Structures are given as C-alpha cells and as structure tokens.
Amino acid sequence: MKTTLILTTALVASGFAASAQELNVVSWGGSYTKSQVEAYHKPFTEMTGIKINSIDADNPATPLKTQVEAGNVTIDLADIELSDAIRLCDEGLLEPIDPASLPPAPDGTPAIEDFVDGALQDCAVATIVWGTIYAYDTTKFTGEKPSKIGDFFDTEKFPGKRGLLKAPKRSLEMALLADGVPAAEVYDVLGTPEGVDRAFAKLDTIKNDVVWWEAGAQPPQLLADGEVVMTTAYNGRIFNAIADEGKPFQIVWDGQYIDFDLWAIPKGAPNLEAAKQFLAFSTDTQRLADQAKWIAYGPARKSSASLVGLYQDGKIEMAPHMPTNPDNMTNSLVNDPEFWADHDVELNERFNAWLAG
Amino acid sequence: MTDTTALLTTADGKPLKSALAKSQGRARRRAFLLVAPLFFFVLLTFIIPIGQMLFQSVYNPTFTQAAPNLVRWFDENPAGSQIDEAAFAALAADLKQMKTDKTAGSAGTRINYDMPGTRSLFTAAARKADKLEPPYREALLEIDKTWGDPMLWRVMRSAASALTADFYLAALDLTRDDTGAIISVAQDRQVYVTLFARTFLLSGLITGLCLVLAFPIAHLLATLPLARSNLLMILVLLPFWTSLLVRTTSWMVLLQGQGVVNNVLVSLGILGEDGRIQMMYNQTGTIIAMTHILLPFMVLPLYSVMRPIPPSYVRAARSLGASSWTAFRRVYLPQTLPGIGAGALLVFILAVGYYITPALVGGADGQLISNLIAFHMQKSLNWSLAAALAGLLLAAVLALYWLYDRVVGIDNLKLG
C-alpha cells in the first residue's frame, strides 16, 4: 500500500527533484516572499553559491505535511505558522532544531535569550511577528471612518462588502472581539459551545456581505478592485500596497491578531545541512532587521529592533507600522496554538457547514 | 453427429477444431499485445490510484500502528467490557511508545476526527508519559479526567480496527453515540448531504442550460453549408482549446462588481451605481461560468448526430401535413436523442466533479462537494474522509450511468 503510493507519487514528482546546490524554500508568496528573497535568499546565495528556489503556497504547512507523509520530500525549508509548527512537530514531521546552533546577538547574548518569548520552538525558529488587521479604502467613507473592531461588523454605519479569510481561525476570534469579549478571555469563551455559537451568530450578521479570500495577496487586490470596502489582511501586505503603490488604504489596529511565522525543516529534507546553514544565516540579528526594510513585520529577535530603520524607499520610518509597536497593541490578541491544535477539526467542520448553509 | 464433426479436417489433415482454436488464439494474443500499452497505462495511472484512494476510505491504520497494546486489549475484551486497570496499563504503555516514536499527534488526530477536542489529550499525556506510574487509572485521570469518558473509549475501540466505516458515516453526516448506535450529527455540523444534493441539482441545471443553448447551435452547424459551418465550428472550438483557468478568470473580469458587465449596465443607465448586480462569489457565478465551459461537450455530440440526418425527412413530414412543431417533435427530435443522451451524460458527469471554477467564482453558496474533497485533501489532511466523499460521488455517478443504461440504453449513446 505505502510503497505503491510512494511509487505513484514519485512518478509524478521526480521532475521536481533538486540538485545538491539548490534549496527549495516554500513561503506564502506576494510581497512577503519578496521581502525574504531580498533580505535572506540573495545574500545567502552570494555568500555560499547555493541557489534558492522560492516556491509559493497558500499555506506551506500543507505541501510539507503531504510530502513527509507520502515519503517523498522535495521541500528543504518552509515558512509556517506557530500552531502548524507545534502540531507538525508533535506528529514527528519536522527536524528538531537546537537553539545553540543559532548565532548569538552582536553583543554576545545567546540566541535562546535574544528571541522573544515563544519564538523558539522544538522544531522551528520564528523570523517575524505579524498581525492580522483590517483595512479599509479611505475614499469609500466620506464622513466617519471605521476605527474599532466592531465597525467591521457594522454594515449600517459602514455599508459595503467585507473581505474575510475563508477559515474559522481568526474569523471567530475577530467576531468575539467585535462582540465585546476582552482579548484575554477570547480563547476561554471560544472553548465553550456557547462561545462558539456566539461567534457564529456575530459572523451571521455580515454573512451576506462577505467576499471570502484564501491567499494573502488577495485582500489588497480586492480592496484595489473595489470589490470590497474593507477587508481583513496581513498588515505587511497592506503597508506595501500603501507605500509602494500609493493606495488610499488605512489600517485599523484595534483588535489585531498577532502570530509568528517560523522556519521549519521537514523530516527527510533532501539538503538538510544546507537548510540548517540557511536557517542559522537568515535568523541572525542583521538579516531579521533587514527584512523589515521590505515589509512591515516585526523581527523575532530583541536585538534586531534597534536596527530597524527606514523602508526600502529611504523615507518611511518603519517602527510605527510594526504590529509590535505598543500603540498598535492596545487591544490585540495573541494566537493560542494549543487551542487550534485541539479544535481545528471541530471548528472547521462547523465553519464549512455554516458557510454552505 | 459427434462423429461427423470429428471427421472435419483442414487441407493438411489436422482436425479443424484445433487448427481454428490455434489461429484464433494467435489473433487474440496479437490483439492483446496491441492494447497492452493502453491497458497498463490505465492500470497504472487510473485503476491503481483510484483503488488506493477507495481503500483509504475504509482503511486507516494510524491509530492501530501507534497503539498496539490497546488494540490487543480491545481484541481480548469485547465491546461493553469494564474499562479496567489492564486497559489503562495498555494505554500508558502505548503513550510511552508514542512519546519515543513521536506518534501521539497523529494518533490523537485520528481520535479527534470522531471526538473533537481530544487531540491535545494525547499530546499532553504523551509528554508526561515517562512519569506515569501504577495505578495507571488514577495517574491518567489526574492528567485529564476525559480519559475516563466512555465515549472516548468507544471511539478508541472503533479506531483500533484499521478497517472502518467511520469515514463513510462522517461523509453522510452520521456518527455513533456512546453506545455505538448510528445517529445524525448535530444540525450545525451537517454539510455533506446538503452539498451532495446541491452538486447534483446544480449539475442538472447546468446540463439543462447547456442543452437549451447547444441544441440550436448544433442544428445551425449541421444545416449550414460546409464552408460557413466550419467557420462557426472554430468559434465553438476556440474556447474549448483555451485553458480552463483562463476562461474562469475571464469570467471573473466580466462578472465582478466593478467588472465589464456591471460597468456597461451602469454606463448605459440601466443600473444605478448602487444597484450593481452581484453575479460572482455566489451560485450565479458558478452556473454561468460552468455552463460556458461545458457547452462544447454538448455541442459536439449533438452536431455529430445531427449532421447525417437527411433534411428530406422533415420536409417529407411537412409535405404529409405535419405542422413544423409536430415535424420537429415527431421526426427530427427522436433522431437526435443519441446525441442528447451522450451530451447530457458527458456534461453532467463532468459538472459533478468540477472543482476549480466553483472554487474561484463560487463564493460561499456556490461551492460543490468537490471543493470539500479538496479541502480535506489539502487543508485538513483527512485523506480518509476525502476518499470516502469521493467514493460516494463515484458510486452516485455509476448508479446514474446504470439508470441511464436501463432507461435509454447505453447502445444509443453516440459521441461522434
């Protein structure tokens, strides 16, 4: 059974096998992948001569899991979310990573103390802290502008279509925050059947006004096309649309959802040593700070913060646009990976049923 | 009688019967060799993968591999036995093994399919497994009192046999209660039956629309002089040769709120700026785009059936006094039935399995069952459930094919 499965998959996938001097790195695409290419991939190739193939996926954890389970791994390194990093590590699908193998901060602080809390996992190392926010098109609202998380659900005061990620994760938390649940209690409430009902009841109020998106590059596009007047999005994508393309978008930080993105190496990665070398290289203080030059995500090392300066255009000060800026964190929610590892199946089922009904 | 047949011989004296068998055998072997490449190709790329997939829908060994001691305990103690200390000891031994093998996550995921919220039960207990000491019952209940839940033990017993019907139950919105009786899942979790119904309904509607649109086109193509009908045929085939993805995204450009169709209607003053029609991200979008994409599959079989119908038949009917409607209904239409059957069956079966178009333009209520199969293949990674859903879809299509054969007769199918 397993061998034939491997055989048929191998037949299909053999065309993608990479040579020893190449690394296959999977990430989320769009301006986020571009920031990694500029800050990590290019300097690494320059230093070592190892070519990096950058591959896009809606969620890189998916091809990673599929490949390891089918026993035919072509991915060397993947950029994944915290809950996926913990879950895949639990399932034994990731290579463990020794924090001692990571470079210390410039002042000699060991990596284990230099990374922010939760950024170093057994099998993954965080590079960025990112926020899911909502943004609106300023030209669509002449009078009062949306400013609170609740305004996203207020279609009377702010009429028009909304863009929302087609997944229960983040949508449910957002609904509860908008319904007045304090950020610290959101996961406790969502852990009860009444809390789940409450979140879906809140989502019901805008169900007919929602355009669902799946890839991170979609929401800025939906806003730009005028398909929606406001949409949830990853803060860096909206920042790039404003800074690079001069779009009239405005980010609402109230109720933002904070998560890590981490590098992880799948079990059986074809170029394990090179992948480890790249992982250590790309998570040093300077590289992490460099990435902020290309996209508005916060570096996962404390020592990088002071090195974050201007955007690549040399004009915009990046600090106020970081999800970790204290002004942006007054009402913010931090992802609870344990909660999602447990309730993923159940809430996805309910969400799919709700969506189809 | 038998004597006379035995006497028949060929010119060189061999019995006719064996000579005939020999030459027929040779012909059969040659015929087999000719189809052998195709046969092995179909076997390797079609039958084996589909067989594997269907096998996965009833066979999931994740839990049996991770928990051999529990499997043994379940084998020795029939359903309904007291969950005794031996059972907990087996569980503890398995948890220790899971910690070393790092299989707690996948074992927990398998149980989590049937009993939500139990995945972390396994990962958390496996993390502390080394510290587990007898009596195991108390030790495990101390970690989490869910370990004593009879429902959990019912689900573990069910998962302890790799051969299972659980995934087919889930695919039909059914589950088992803690006594093992089959019941419907809670109202707010029922999704698959609705989606199956919607898939067949929309596919039927799309087939009907295709027929209505394709019939006049095919008739025109079949009756025009060859030079002009060839030109028209190219117009039918051109979109057919264009990539599916390109055609779907073109429809997105046309149909979206700020798209071509709405812009034209607004600039003509037919619609107000606020009255733009929502034609995408809903069922309307799915129906429009899929009808267009599947149209050639209806036009081509119809055309190939209509082309050889002599126009003199209808003329004869007319000259014998039939009205144009009667002539069409009694003379022309029956002759096109094989084409209608072939086109309808082709379009319907393709529509039932459609995935990309509804995913892109379907929004929430334009999703079909194939989108959920893709969800379980790619996102939730519950391949067994995806396989069960696909298996049901396959069975439904085969049933339809059988029904078609009974009612219309498969010999009447004509593709060209």
Observed structural traits:
heterodimer; A: 357 residues; alpha/beta; D-Maltodextrin-Binding Protein, domain 2; 2 domains; 10-stranded mixed β-sheet; 13 helices; 10 strands; 39% helix; disordered N terminus; B: 416 residues; mainly alpha; MetI-like fold; two-stranded antiparallel ribbon; flat; SBP (chain A); Spermidine/putrescine ABC transporter substrate-binding protein (chain A); signal (chain A)
Q: Helix count of chain B?
A: 20
What is the CATH architecture annotation of the largest domain in chain A? 3-Layer(aba) Sandwich
The CATH class of the largest domain in chain B is Mainly Alpha
The CATH architecture of the largest domain in chain B is Orthogonal Bundle
Stretches with pLDDT under 50, minimum 5 residues of chain B: none
| Pair with the biggest interface | A-B, 39 and 45 residues
**Helix content estimate of chain A:** 25-40%
> Cα-atom Rg of chain A, whole angstroms?
21 Å
How many separate domains make up the residues of chain B? 2
- Calculate the terminal CA-CA distance of chain B, rounded to whole Å: 48 Å
Q: Count the DSSP helices of chain A.
A: 13
Strand content of chain A: 15-25%
How many β-strand stretches of chain A? 10
Trace the largest sheet of chain B across and list its strands: 1-2
Profile the largest sheet of chain A.
10 strands, mixed
CATH superfamily of the largest domain in chain B: MetI-like
**CATH topology annotation of the largest domain in chain A:** D-Maltodextrin-Binding Protein, domain 2
**Estimated share of beta-strand residues of chain B:** under 5%
Structural class of chain B: mainly alpha
Instruction: Give the helices and strands of chain B as they follow along the chain.
Output: HHHHHHHHHHEEHHHHHHHHHH
